[in-house]
Specification:
By secondary structure, the protein is of the alpha/beta class. It folds into three domains: 3-120, Elongation Factor Tu (Ef-tu), domain 3 (Beta Barrel), CATH 2.40.30; 133-252 and 382-542, P-loop containing nucleotide triphosphate hydrolases (Rossmann fold, 3-Layer(aba) Sandwich); 267-377, no CATH class. The chain is built from 16 helices and 22 strands. It has helices spanning 3-8, 75-81, 118-124, 171-183, 219-227, 269-274, 291-308, 328-336, 339-343, 350-366, 399-420, 434-437, 447-460, 476-480, 492-495, 505-511, and strands at residues 10-15, 25-30, 41-47, 53-68, 87-100, 112-115, 133-138, 144-148, 158-163, 196-201, 238-243, 262-265, 267-268, 318-320, 323-325, 371-372, 389-393, 427-431, 462-468, 482-487, 518-522, 530-533. The strands form five sheets. A ten-stranded mixed beta sheet has the order 12-11-17-10-18-19-9-20-21-22. Strands 1-2-5-4-3-6 form a six-stranded antiparallel beta barrel. Helix 7 packs across helix 10, helix 8 packs antiparallel against helix 10 and helix 11 (399-420) packs parallel to helix 13 (447-460). It is elongated.
């Protein structure tokens, strides 16, 4: 008999008769000399009146000990001294996760309770019913936990919402681990060849090293990957893009610790007009609801679109009002003058035009270096379809420039998917600080784009892995449409918000104590959230973790031709 089967039949106690046992929950008395912990999975077999055997699988969510025979708090001291005869009651509460077959009778007091491992563990969480399994982590006891790909690829659902305190919850690390699990296992099947991921690097340069092995990966982490059916390695196909450095006519990526293999990106003035991108320069927090201001933006976009339709389509510059423009500043100067008055109807107040000009000047300061009309800007966009994983670095940009980059890329991606009219190839988008881009209160120029992805992305094969410190501050429909809900360490007040209604009472408390690398995951097919750990990244997350290749230092020119 295999070890998994032996462990699956390990007796741990019996169903208590002093507490109610129902088809949905029960209490277990733990045998002396044995331990039952939070998150253990157990099974109880009971025989009903017709002789049929019913199995109740469940998750331990409460464990407690107390004296039996004691009446007062001070009795604990007498029991310790041996002057008061007492027994220790060691019991655990079990939340039933599955009944097989579905006969909803309660188990009987005295029924034997066993800890499940191996195949029975998979049954307890309905993993045996999943045809396409994505490894999502390990339990405390080392059991592999899976999610159903059909709830991530749009077949039956899509999107993941990952919440937690910044710097502690390792939200982005978990999002990249999910991508790694899909791309480096066999779960995607034929879709793996063309499936893409678009990752926005919001903080530091952690994600600019996905293609390099992590020298700090130890034997324990390697074993964890292999338990999940994965072979630890860096991501196989990665494209890296960073914004062009401000103040330089030569296009150089604005990065710090890594330069090799990172390509600079800009948009041309012609693209700004042709694709009506000006709206994304009015960053979060602006009074975007003012109807007149939006009318001005709309009219200017239309004028720019008409200008972009003229001349050589491959020319990055545009001509407006008889003037050739190769710099964004030139466009701003043009709109500061009377030209703006001729673009908008006379009913628009002069104060609104002045407000538009002020915002445009601010945009020139923070975003202008990303929009150029010089010949060097030709073909310097982000080619996210060239590689399986594309990392777009935005961490050095001002908040308004970050919003511009995210909004423009997601808008273009959705337009391309709609034009193809098919959900394949699959696209996974990883975006941190979602509460900034799609706030519940206030306004953001890209909230509608993100909402469109959340509501229609499933049918187009687009899945959003959104991360945020506080799900309560993100547009409700975006969080609500996420099939996979994940939390790391939460603030105590945040954990009580309605957005975490999928957590049990105990899980809410535990979420305030979680350590980095530990997450609580809820998914549609498993009736209770599960606490799990995910392995240490097999890819570097900073320059100091990069493993040197055999033969010495990495070649800084290795990817210059990409």
């Amino acid at each position: 008999m295999s070890e998994a089967v032996i462990r699956a039949t390990e007796e741990i106690g019996v169903v208590l008769g002093t507490e109610d046992a129902t088809p949905l929950e029960l209490w277990v008395g733990v045998e002396p000399g044995k331990d039952l912990q939070l998150d253990d999975l157990v099974v109880v077999e009971t025989t009903v009146s017709d002789g049929q055997v019913v199995r109740f699988f469940g998750l331990v969510d409460v464990v407690r000990k107390r004296y039996e025979g004691a009446q007062f708090d001070s009795d604990a001291f007498r029991a310790r001294e041996g002057t008061l005869p007492v027994d220790v009651s060691y019991a655990a509460h079990v939340q039933v996760t599955r009944i097989d077959p579905e006969v909803f009778v309660p188990p009987s007091p005295g029924d034997v309770v066993r800890v499940v491992r191996g195949e029975d563990f998979q049954r307890a969480l309905y993993i045996d019913k999943m045809e396409k399994r994505v490894p999502i982590g390990l339990t405390r006891t080392g059991e592999a936990v899976f999610a159903n790909l059909e709830f991530l690829d749009g077949s039956r659902g899509a999107h993941a919402s990952i919440s937690g305190v910044s710097g502690v919850a390792t939200k982005t690390s978990y999002a990249t681990f999910l991508l790694y699990s899909m791309f480096h296992s066999e779960v995607l099947g034929a879709d793996a060849i063309n499936a893409k991921a678009l990752i926005f690097n919001v903080k530091g340069e952690d994600l600019l090293w996905l293609d390099r092995p992590n020298r700090k990966l130890d034997a324990t982490a390697v074993a964890q990957y292999r338990t999940l059916g994965l072979e630890p390695s860096p991501f196989r196909s990665v494209g890296l893009f960073a914004p062009a450095r401000k103040g330089s006519d030569v296009l150089v990526p604005d990065t710090g610790s890594r330069q090799d293999g990172v390509l600079p990106y800009v948009w041309t003035l012609r693209e700004l007009g042709r694709d009506r991108l000006l709206r994304f320069m009015f960053g979060s927090g602006e009074d975007g609801r003012a109807a007149q201001l939006q009318l001005v933006v709309h009219r200017v976009e239309r004028a720019l679109e008409e200008a972009a339709a003229l001349g050589d389509p491959s020319d990055p510059a545009i001509e407006l009002g008889g003037r050739r423009m190769e710099r964004f500043d030139e466009l701003v100067d043009y709109l500061e003058g009377p030209a703006l008055d001729t673009m908008v109807p006379g009913a628009v107040a002069s104060g609104t035009l002045d407000a538009f000009r002020r915002r445009l000047i601010a945009a020139a300061q923070h975003v202008g270096h990303l929009v150029r009309g010089a010949p060097s800007a030709r073909d310097r966009g982000i080619r996210w379809a060239d590689r399986q994983v594309t990392v777009v670095d935005i961490h050095t940009l001002h908040a308004s420039a970050q919003t511009f980059v995210v909004g423009v890329l997601l808008k273009r991606m959705m337009e391309e998917k709609e034009a193809k009219g098919t959900s394949r190839p699959l696209v996974f988008v990883v975006l941190d600080e979602l509460n900034k881009y799609a706030p519940r209160e206030g306004w953001s120029p890209i909230r509608d784009v993100l909402l469109d992805i959340a509501e229609r992305g499933r049918s187009l094969g687009v899945s959003l892995f959104g991360a945020q410190q506080t799900a309560s501050e993100v547009e409700r429909r975006i969080v609500g449409n996420a099939a996979l809900k994940v939390v790391g360490r939460l603030d105590a007040a945040e954990s009580e918000r309605a957005e975490y209604g999928f957590l049990t009472r105990v899980a809410r408390v535990r979420s305030t104590l979680l350590q980095p690398g530990t997450m609580i995951v809820a998914q549609p097919e498993i009736p209770t959230p599960v606490l799990l750990r995910f392995p240490f990244p097999a890819w570097a997350t900073r320059a100091s973790e990069v493993a040197e290749p055999e033969g010495g230092e990495p070649d800084p020119f290795a990817r210059m031709g990409d």
